[in-house]
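Homework-ish question, so no full write-ups if that breaks the rules, but can someone show me the predicted structure for this set?
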Amino acid sequence: MSTPASTFVLDDLFARDLPEMSVPWQAANAPAARLVVLNESLAGDLGLDPEWLRSPDGVGFLIGTSVPDGARPVAQAYAGHQFGGLVPRLGDGRALLLGEIVTDDGRRRDVHLKGSGATPFSRGGDGLAAVGPMLREYVISEAMHGLGIPTTRSLAVTATGQQVFRETPLPGAVLTRVASSHLRVGSFVYAALTRDVGLLRRLADHAIARHHPEAANAERPYLALFESVAAVQAELIARWMLVGFVHGVMNTDNMTISGETIDYGPCAFMDAFDPVTVFSSIDHAGRYAYGNQPAIAAWNLARFAETLLSLIDDDQDRAIELATEALGGFGPRYEAAWTTGMRAKLGLPTDVDEAAAGPLVTDLLELLAGSHVDYTSFFRSLGAAARGDAEPARGVFIDLAGFDAWLGRWRALSPDADAMDRVNPIYVPRNHLVEEALTAATNGDVEPFTRLVDVVTSPYEEREGLQRYAEPAPEDFGNYRTFCGT
Ligand code: AMP
Ligand code: MG
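A: Not a homework solution, just the prediction itself:
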C-alpha cells in the first residue's frame, strides 16, 4: 500500500457546517521536525501508509505544515466551565483541526494537532507543547483504547526541534490526534452564548448526524440528542471508574458529545483504592477526585442541557421540565453500567441476585480503602483466588479477618476466573512507569516508552517477563502529582 498524497482527502465538514466556530489557521513551521513515535496500526485503519508517514512529506502532514490539496485547517471555537467557572471563549489555543478522513467503512474521523503553534484562541499562551506531555497523552490514550474504553486516539508524536519554555526549556512536540469528532459540551456552550439559534441548531444537527443519528427520528430530536449524550457518558464514566482512571480535569470543554475520553492532561490511574484520590496539582478542592467523577459528569450534562433548552421546546418551562427529567436518567444509567461492570470484575454468574451482589461490592470497596490496597493488581489476583490460590489477594490486607469473611461469601457464589481475567487488566500505565518512560524519551531514549506502549495496549493478556509492569509503584515513588496545560 502506498499513500500518494493526491489520493487522500481531508474533508472540512466541520468548517463548512459551522464557519462561525472555525478560524482558518496554519500550523507553525518546524524545519527540524523528527518523528518520535508513529501508531502504525491506527495509520492502517485510516488508510494511511506508515512508510509515507515516515517520509519528509508524511511528517509535514503529521505536524500540519504540508496538508493535502483542498484541506482547510481550522482552530475550533468553544467555551467551557473550568473548575466550575464559565470561560466564554476558550477554543483551540494550541491545536488545529486539519480536517476529516472518511474511511472505507464510512466513518468520519478528525485529524487534529496539539502543540501546533499559537492561534487567535491562545490567550497569552505560547500555543506549544513539550515532548513529555504529548507522549503521556499518546501512551494513556492508547492504553484506554487497549482496555476497550472509548477514547480519542494518538497517531503520532513529532519532535519539532524547537524548545518550549516551561519551568525549564523542554523539547517541543506536536501530537497528531484522531477522534470521531472534537465536539464538546463546551462547543454547545459557545454556540448558545452567541444567542444565534440558527448556529446552535446547525451545531446540534451536525452532532446528531455524526454521533447520534437515531435522535433525528425522535419526536423531539434535540432532547433525544441530550439523552444519547447522557447515555454514552454514563457508560464512559462507569468504564473509567471500573479501571481506576482519574481524568483530572473534567471541565465542560473536556467532555465530548461522542462519548470518547478526551484531553489526557493531569489524568492518572489510581494505585491504592481511595475515592478521594486526586493527582492534579491544581485541583486543591478535589473537585475532580476519583469518587466525584460521576457527579461531575452529571453537572457537566446539566450545563449541556441548558444550552439546548431553546431547541427542546418553545415554552421555556416545558423545556426545563423535559430536560430535567432526561438529566435524571443519567444517575440510574451510570449505576446500572457500573454495577454490571463490578459484577463482571468479581466474575459473578448472572443468576446471582442483586441482594447478594450489591453488599458484596460495597463491603469489598470498604475493605480495599481500609487497607490501602492496589486497585488493579488486587482485582487481577482475585482471579487467582477464584482458581483456588487466595494468598496473593489475601496478602495485601491489614484487616485479614475482614477479608477472609468476605472471601468466603464471594467464593460461595462460584465466580468465573476466566471471565474475570477478560475484564480485570493486568497492565495499566502506572504512574511510576509512565514517568520513567517519559524521562528517558525526553533525554533521547524512546525504547522504554515504546515498550510501555506495547505492554499496556494488550492489557488483559499476561505475558512472560513483564512482572514489573504489573506491580504497584515502589514505596519511595511517593505521592504522585500531575500538571495541566503543559
Ligand atoms: P486544556 O486544559 O488542555 O483542556 O486546555 C484548556 C484551554 O487552554 C484550551 O483552550 C487550550 O487551547 C488552552 N491552552 C492550553 N495550553 C496552551 C498553550 N500552551 N498555549 C495556548 N493555549 C493553551
Ligand atoms: Mg481541553
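Now go work out the reasoning yourself. Hint: The first helix runs from residue 13 to 17.
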